Amino acid sequence: MEYPSKLIEEAVNQVSKLPGIGKKTALRLVLHLIKQNEQTTFALTEALNNLRSKIRFCTHCHNISDTEVCSICNSHKRDKNIICVVEDTKDVMAIENTAQYTGLYHVLGGVISPMNGVGPADLKIEALVKRLDNRAEVKEVILALSPTMEGDTTAFYINKRIKDLSVKVSVIARGVPVGGDLEYADEITLGRSILSRTLFN
Amino acid sequence: MEYPSKLIEEAVNQVSKLPGIGKKTALRLVLHLIKQNEQTTFALTEALNNLRSKIRFCTHCHNISDTEVCSICNSHKRDKNIICVVEDTKDVMAIENTAQYTGLYHVLGGVISPMNGVGPADLKIEALVKRLDNRAEVKEVILALSPTMEGDTTAFYINKRIKDLSVKVSVIARGVPVGGDLEYADEITLGRSILSRTLFN
Predict the structure, then answer these.
(1) CA dist B80 to A5, A72, A139, B106, Å?
(2) Which of A89, A117, A167, B152 is deepest in the core (most CB within 10 A)?
(3) Mutation choice for B interface testing from A1, A12, A14, A105 by most B CBs within 10 A
(4) Closest residue of A to B43, CA-based?
């Protein structure tokens, strides 16, 4: 597509590098910014620059944090006996939103995925092992990874790595989603929900 | 939603101000930027800052331009006898893509929309009248505005403003879209396509 200005073209190229944003959406966003006052654009770019240059990760759980140790790891209210292993920050936020979990986290920063060139060494798995070695108070590790091929592989690998330590390893339950219609559940999920049935109180 | 970092929160707030981007998409984009190297973010923000601070508009047609007079107004190949009036830059790009038009443009910068507080004075309508006054060579003005209430109102207003000047005023054809199934055309479009029928060669 011919752009009326090199500035537009460069901005569209940069914006369309973001995931899920094509050239057409990028052009719409860029033209929107031109219509707003300059301050709108500068506030946006400053926030992104600040984020990228100042972002830090908690030295304990490797979650994104403003401080050296994040607020969860630092809290006296959290149960230090349980560590929940997740793929990334979004998963921590999702689990925190449930208000069902009061333990600590360990953020891997991804899952093992040979297709994308991500191996165990690229993730914070050794850091987890070290953390378990150093902290005798940890009694349980919950593997809360996505129920996908990559998530299962990663869970399998972590379990192999830590099963000799005196710590219980559990995984989050898989079954039919609450509120979902049984008729529309896929057969693997439904099959597993039958195999993993629990006692009716 | 609780964010793990103030930097994330501020970035998400700024990104979610863009049209069509909610908090969840903004978070996804922001976390994507964190995973990339710093240069990715800085290239993006620099392109946006450059765009917003250096952007200029052609003094003739008011389209976005890198120079005082845009490449279309400056071109010797364009037919100076016709001016096509459009709402914004995206419409110029769309018409240029058809390769069916060789005249000049006039970009209004919007359409009359009392609901959004946009009146005739907010648009480049007087600039168009002045342009027609000064340039006797213009023989025809094509109103290429969207077939909506606002577009029609704007076309009606412009026609009233320039009908006393010795210039032909036309509007782009309305009818069933090429490649569209007649069955699915709405009744207003179909009705108008019958009223505005043209001779079969």
Answers:
(1) 22, 68, 81, 12
(2) A89
(3) A14
(4) A14
**Which of these, A139, A176, A170, lies nearest to A155 by C-alpha position?**
A170
For residue A112, CA distances in Å to A137, A189, B105, B128, B153 come to 28, 22, 55, 61, 58
**What residue spans define the domains of chain B?**
6-54, 77-171
Q: What class has domain B6-54?
A: mainly alpha
Residues of B in contact with A89 (CB under 8 A): 4, 8, 31
At B191 the three-state DSSP class reads helix
Which tokens belong to B170? 């036309």
> Which residue in B41, B48, B49 is closest to A52 by CB distance?
B41
ipTM surpassing 0.85, yes or no?
no
Pick the CATH number of B77-171 from 1.10.287.1700, 3.30.930.10, 3.40.50.920, 3.40.1360.10: 3.40.1360.10
Tell me the pLDDT tens digit for each residue of A54-93: 888 999 999 998 889 999 999 999 999 999 999 999 899 9
A4, A34, A96 member nearest B92 (Cβ):
A4
